[in-house]
Amino acid sequence: MRINYKNFLKNNFFSLILSFATVVVIFLSYDRFIVRHDYVVGYEGNCDKATESCFVGCEDDECTVEYYYTKMQKYQPDLYAECGLDITNCEYADACLSGDRECSKIYCDEKTKTEDEICVSGVKDSYIQSDIGSTDSSEESLQDNLDNNI
Amino acid sequence: MICYLYPKPIFLLFSHDVPVLLYYAQIPATIIALLLSFYIFWNNKKSLLGRLLFLIAVLFSIWTITTLIVWAGNDGGLMVFIWPFYNLILGFIAVFCVYFIYVFLTKKDVGSGLKLIFLALLAPILILATTNLNIGGFNITNCDAFDFEWLPLKIYSSIVGVISMIWILFLLIHRHRSDKTDFRKQITLLGAGIELFLFSFLGMEFVATYFTRIGILPDSGLELYGMFGMTIFMVYIIIVIVRFHTFNIKLVAAQALIWGLIALIGSQFFFIKTQINFILNGVGFIFTIILGYFLVRAVKKVDEQREALDLANRQQTNLLHFISHQVKGFFTKSRNAFSGLLEGDYGTLPETARHVIQEGFDSDNRGVQTVQEILNAANIKTGNVTYLMVETNLVNLIKDVILLLKPAADKKQVAINFNPAVQSFILKADTVQLQQAIKNLIDNSIKYTPSGKIDISLEVSADKKQAVIKVADTGVGIHDEDMPKLFSEGGRGKDSLKVNVDSTGYGLYIVKNIIKIHGGTVTAYSEGEGHGSVFTVVLPVKN
After folding, report:
1. Contact between chains at A86 and B80 (C-beta distance less than 8 A)
2. What number is the ipTM of this complex?
3. Which of A60, B295, B314, B429 could anchor a disulfide with B392, C-beta 3.0 to 4.6 Å?
């Protein structure tokens, strides 16, 4: 039996296009997120409330135990190279390093906090540190401290 | 990256750190949807409706399984891969639900234009699926990607959902209004099911993720309640299958009920904490399986008996059909012989024989008409009538019928008056069938009017969208008791045989069905016995 390809394409263009597009999306998504890890990872970085302006978090529902954090974002491949799969106990995760392609460290202040969030600070000003390539003195000092620790 | 605050799941899906409702809502809904839709698909693989239902169930199942992985998991890498597909699955489900309803209502595939509209609706979601405009990152502290979703695309996929709901509602209402058959009940049931599913599934999902995104809700747990929508949809599917055999499936109600119960009880094993509850649930689980087996067997037996009875009925109907045809043939041959004698084909008849032969000719004529009426009614009932709708002049059609029946009326000295309000009125109709219906009505009046007159009128509504035909006679009238069964199959009046010995009881039944097919209505009115009757036919121009 001969197949009339013209008719086949005409009758099935909807399912063919959708199937093809879905396969392409799955392939591209796999390539981006599983192969190249081309995405940003957000997490809570450690924060010293004595010297920095920190967000306040609660360890439990009743908030009997508080902890303090900054909002960190790093490019996944950089974070993976610095800390591996688990960032627990990885101090590189708490700062933007010179080799980081995308990185931001957000401290708590009126601009960065939402209505539900509380800031705690031992210093007079809070600030946002981002783009490690910049010449912000506070970033440099942070970098120096890290280098010394290493 | 690992979500460092969350425990590692067991087999990707199970974790003690997720709401119990997650398993209760997702697992039964997924199992029921997959089993039922696969069963429907498997029973009739060529049915587009069945395939679409299965596709919707598969998409829903992908949604629930990936949701389970995301809720229970702690592998950020896997979750960020899954997350971008949520908008896509939402869009697909919404569009395929519209597609499903179109096929359900029209019983055929949709056209290329509509398919292009479906593609256009899905295009933005497909194109942006793997870009930062869908999702740009993942939060390993909260173990979610709400902070990295691009809200406009999220809203767009929800808008596609809302459009599909409104679209489906419009299609259902439009078809429900125009349809005059039992199919309306199916429209109501399946429509309610699919709308409830979309409303709970898409609505809850949007509210949950949007409110979580803007910080009103701590997590998107609210979306779990939306999963029950699929179970409700499947219940409606079962109802239409059982009541109307919509998917040509039998036995499915009992089987689905049992599978649903097994899934429901089985899902409880995942969150039972005490040993006694485990044992009790286990006993219930085993009992359900055993009782379910016997229930399905019993239902199967009843169904087989019903099928055997249906087959016997069909065979009996076929036999009656065959006999009727044969009898009609004998009547016709005999009538032709009488006709030849009366017309002098075999020489001049003696006057004494002419009267008897005329009697025989008239009797055969009535016999042919009676058998023809029964055959017509049987054909209408079994749906073996094809209607060819063409532009027809209603005034001329009624005039032709009157001309045909005038000899019979004259014989009884019943006058027929026709007073059309217009010279001509064109509507789309099957000329032969509509002529048959009008003929039956007037013939009925002639037969039940011993003397007097029949007034026939034709009026047109002010907007010229419908014609009203009235056949009013001064005959025996209709008894109140006879009124409800007047248009039913074989529905003779209690004294009708006294007036019309040839009554089959099918004449008005045929009228009702033909008029109904033309989108019209027929009603009867009588002030009681001896006060005549009025039959009113309303026919729309467009049908």
Report:
1. no
2. 0.79
3. B429
Interface size A-B, in CB pairs within 8 Å, comes to 81
Cβ atoms < 10 Å from Cβ of B35? 19
Structure-token pair, residue A34: 């599983």
pLDDT, tens only, B160-205: 999 999 999 999 999 998 887 778 888 998 999 999 999 988 888 8
d(CA B145, CA A57): 19
Based on the number of CB atoms within 10 Å of its own CB, is A9 exposed (0-12), middle (13-18) or buried (19 or more)?
exposed
- What whole-number percentage of chain B has pLDDT above 90? 29
**Cα B230 from Cα B200, distance rounded (Å):** 9
The alpha-carbon gap from B128 to the nearest alpha carbon of chain A, in Å, equals 9
d(CA B125, CA B123): 5
Shortest distance, CA B242 to any CA of chain A (angstroms): 31
pLDDT at residue number A70? 93
Q: Whole-angstrom Cα distance, residue B276 to residue B121?
A: 53
| Rama region for B149: left / alpha / beta (φ>0; ψ in -120 to 50; rest) | beta
Cα B407 off chain centre by = 44
Instruction: State the Rg of chain A over Cα.
Output: 23
A42 touches chain B (CB under 8 A): yes
pLDDT, tens only, B445-480: 998 888 889 999 999 988 888 899 999 999 888 888
Cα separation, B209 vs B223, whole angstroms: 8
B187 CB burial (10 A radius; 0-12, 13-18, 19+): buried
For residue B141, give the nearest of A39, A43, A115 by CB distance.
A43
B1: closest CA of chain A, how far (Å): 5
pLDDT of residue A140: 37
Integer distance in angstroms from the first to the last C-alpha of chain A?
73
Residue A123's pLDDT is 53
Q: Which residues contact A53 (CB under 8 A, 6 or more apart)?
A: A107, A108, A109, A119, A120, A121, A123, A125, A126, A127
Lowest mean pLDDT among B50-64, B214-228, B332-346, B522-536: B214-228
Predicted pLDDT at B202: 86
Question: Which of these, B383, B374, B365, B387, lies nearest to B321 by C-alpha position?
Answer: B374
Rounded (5°) CA angle B472-B473-B474: 135
Q: What is the pLDDT of residues B530-541, one digit of tens each?
A: 888 999 999 988
Contacts of A44 in chain B (CB under 8 A): 141
Mean pLDDT, rounded, for B521-525? 91
| d(C-alpha B519, C-alpha B177), whole Å | 11
Beta-strand runs (E) in chain A? 40-46, 53-58, 66-75, 103-106, 119-121, 128-130
| pLDDT in the model for residue B39 | 82
Residue ranges of chain A whose pLDDT lies below 70: 1-3, 122-150
Residue ranges per domain, chain A? 1-36, 40-149
- Would you put residue B272 in left (φ > 0), alpha (ψ -120 to 50) or beta? beta
